[in-house]
Design brief:
Organism: Collimonas pratensis
Helix content: 25-40%
Keywords: DNA-binding, Transcription, Transcription regulation
Protein name: Histidine utilization repressor
CATH topology of the largest domain: Chorismate lyase
Largest sheet: 6 strands, antiparallel
Radius of gyration: 22 Å
InterPro entries: Bact_HTH_transcr_reg, Chorismate_lyase_/UTRA_dom_sf, His_ut_repres, Tscrpt_reg_HTH_GntR, UTRA, WH-like_DNA-bd_sf, WH_DNA-bd_sf
CATH superfamily of the largest domain: Chorismate lyase-like
Pfam families: GntR, UTRA
Strand content: 25-35%
Strand order of the largest sheet: 4-5-6-9-8-7
Order of helices and strands: HHHEEEHEHEEHEHEEE
Number of strands: 10
Distance between the termini: 66 Å
Shape: elongated
Length: 236
């Protein structure tokens, strides 16, 4: 027998995990930072892609990293939060928490579809329709699919929603009186998953909300959030 107990070697994938954790905890890699690619880590540690992938996957499962399809792997900023006690514009929510905000406008149009008219309780069209992706630190965290009542917001289609959010615009024109909402977990379709840069199999948190000005439906919106990046908070 040997006089000392032989120490077990650290598994190769654990070496990568320890390195990533050291960089994060030491402040070298900050929340929202893009970390080196799998290939770069393979070269640095002289390991196989499978081994590096396992390390990053486990850190992602523990919500320390966020893997964005087609973009790379980022240090997790913690789940983005939105309050349910009051309706706040998403840019205000994100900036208040120290994030950098931007948006991508995908659709801004008049619509006469039955879905649009029913959502707003209109007998005849058009309704206004917008689809916008909201980003925090260049990570997509919300897809906003909104129908808006042109009787209350006639200049909606003339707004530049890269500069002002729909919420900001509408509150200035006609402050909302009441709202109803529901929240559910739902799997996104492929196009939605691509826009939000989500991994296959990840669900969304879906908030559906209608708001009124007096007795008139002002807007009906569905807000899609990657489940791994977002949470709702509230209290009373």
């Amino acid at each position: 027998m040997h006089g000392a107990i032989e120490k077990k070697a650290t598994p190769a994938f654990q070496q990568v995990k320890d390195h990533v954790l050291q960089q994060i905890r030491g402040g070298e890699w900050k929340p929202g930072d893009l970390i080196p690619s799998e290939r770069e880590l393979m070269i640095q540690f002289n390991l196989s892609r499978m081994t590096v992938n396992r390390a990053l996957r486990e850190l992602t499962d523990n919500q320390l990293l966020v893997r964005i399809q087609g973009s790379g792997t980022y240090v997790a900023p913690g789940k983005y939060q939105s309050t349910l006690v009051e309706i706040r514009s998403i840019d205000d929510e994100l900036v208040a928490r120290g994030h950098r905000y931007r948006s991508q406008v995908l659709t801004l149009e008049a619509s006469t579809t039955p879905v649009a008219l029913k959502a707003l309780g209109l007998d005849a069209g058009p309704a206004f329709h917008s689809v916008i992706v909201h980003f925090a630190d260049d990570i997509p965290i919300q897809l906003e699919d909104r129908y808006t009542n042109p009787q209350l917001f006639p200049d909606y289609l003339q707004q530049d929603f890269h500069l002002v959010t729909p919420n900001h615009y509408m509150v200035q024109i006609a402050p909302l009186d009441r709202a109803e909402y529901s929240i559910e977990s739902k799997m996104p379709e492929a196009a939605m998953r691509k826009l939000l840069q989500m991994e296959a199999g990840e669900p969304c948190l879906l908030l559906s909300r209608r708001t009124w000005v007096h007795d008139t439906v002002a807007t009906a919106v569905t807000l899609w959030h990657p489940g791994s990046r977002y949470q709702f908070t509230g209290g009373f």
